[in-house]
């Protein structure tokens, strides 16, 4: 029983990391899709910069729950559903060229 419970916990954590990775990749694709529809990444970059400029305490509760705010812990970043805003902006700016 102990082995089964330990395996369930370990596989549950591993599955959460995999799901979060796919979610972060989906955010990058959504950003690229926005830039494609608008024929320019500038509006999305501006929106992300504005969102990134807000203090985490002032974000609406719905955004705080997504883990969009920057965090310094690399391990906890594995479980974040959204990539860090600077990475999203860099990906959009790289797409520009």
Topology of this protein?
Blueprint: H1 2-38, H2 42-53, H3 61-64, H4 74-77, H5 85-96
Helix pairs in contact: 1-5, 2-5
Approximate helicity band? over 70%
What percent of residues are in strands?
under 5%
Low-confidence stretches: none
Largest sheet: none
The number of helices is 5
Please report the total strand number as a whole number.
Answer: 0
Q: Mean of the pLDDT scores?
A: 82
- Dominant shape: elongated
**Radius of gyration, whole Å:** 16 Å
Give the end-to-end Cα distance, rounded to a whole number of Å.
56 Å
Give, in order, the helices and strands: HHHHH
Q: Structural class, from helix and strand content?
A: mainly alpha
Structural overview:
This protein has helices spanning 2-38, 42-53, 61-64, 74-77, 85-96. It has 97 residues and is mainly α. The model has no long low-confidence stretch (mean pLDDT 82). α1 crosses α5 and α2 (42-53) packs antiparallel against α5 (85-96).
Task: Describe, in short, the structure shown.
With 97 residues, the chain is mainly alpha-helical. The chain has 5 helices and no strands.
Tags for this model:
97 residues; 0% strand; mainly alpha; 71% helix
């Amino acid at each position: 029983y102990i082995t089964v419970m330990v395996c369930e916990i370990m596989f549950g954590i591993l599955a959460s990391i995999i799901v979060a990775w796919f979610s972060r990749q989906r955010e990058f694709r959504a950003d690229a899709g926005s830039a494609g529809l608008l024929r320019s990444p500038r509006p999305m970059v501006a929106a992300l910069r504005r969102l990134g400029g807000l203090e985490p305490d002032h974000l609406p509760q719905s955004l705080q729950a997504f883990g969009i705010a920057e965090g310094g812990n690399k391990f906890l970043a594995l479980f974040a559903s959204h990539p860090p805003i600077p990475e999203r902006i860099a990906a959009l700016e790289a797409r520009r060229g």
